[in-house]
Amino acid sequence: MALTDISWEEFHQLDPVAKSRHLNQDDGRPFHTLMTQQFDRKALDTLGDLATRIRFLAKTKEGMTFLSGLLPHRRAMLYFTQPSTRTFLSFCTACEILGMRMGTVRDTATSSERKGETQDDSVRTFSSYFDCVIMRTQVGGLAERMAWVLSNSERPVPIINAGSGKDQHPTQALLDVYTLQRSFEARGGIDGKTVVFVGDLLRGRTVRSLSALLTNYEGVRQVFIAPPELQVADDVLAILDARGVSYELGDDLEVVVPGADAIYMTRVQDEWDAEKGESAKIDIERYWFQEAYLEHLKPDAVIMHPLPRRHEIPHSIDNDPRAMYWRQMRNGMWIRAALIARIFGCDGEIDAYSEA
Fold it and tell me: Which of 59, 61, 115, 315 is catalytic?
């Protein structure tokens, strides 16, 4: 079913799994990319393989010339009204790799929203000029709303959710999974691994998205280490319960380090504080990764972070081979390029060129 087959009120009331059934094309490719529930194990494997092909092609001038000739006839609008560095530049680079031209809005003060234009009308305007809209917003649910609006307009174009309120950040989860795929490719893949999430798990949309995406793998155990005030939300645990996933809640990082295959560190999301300085009252230092923990961490484990970081990981760890957050960041442009290629149907050309 497409978004044209359902009213906004009906769609809005659905759970994420039910919503995801309205977002893909008939052949299983994503049209809108709004949530991790759109991606099953097969889709993740396909995207990971495609990202690797793109990564290898981009190593040569000939390969880059081929890639940049795939979508020069397409245009992308990057509508980033929430502060962003990595995600914005990652999407810019992904579009450039495929030859797409871009427009950007990064501050509503410079747009007609300053004159009172609604966000609905702003995004409808973008769809007149561009072939996809990549959105990052502090407003929860806005990406979903605009996907429905555009699907029911005279010019439906794809919406890619680059972070929506405290809801989800699906492309961050895709690059996280791609990082785990690459890290564990010589260890039997992601199946059976223990992933430890640490920090602000209540408000971190990257944790929410990755936790859901990991349910596609067999025997993955998830451990959530956080202060009680910032522990993972019940709706995330409900997804794990429904999928029969093994998980554990705790508040002692040091004790779980030896059993971890991946440790996913996060910063305090104090931009969501109801009152200024609210998060500063929480003792978060106990949840920082200490250099001494490296002695107890498996030699083939990985340390991840969606960035930006503050004090959760000391810079002295950056050169440890298990520190994966810089590769994790680079992986973002490859998996986002793969996603865009899938949306616009040029992945077959990439596969054919790679195999020639």
Answer: 115
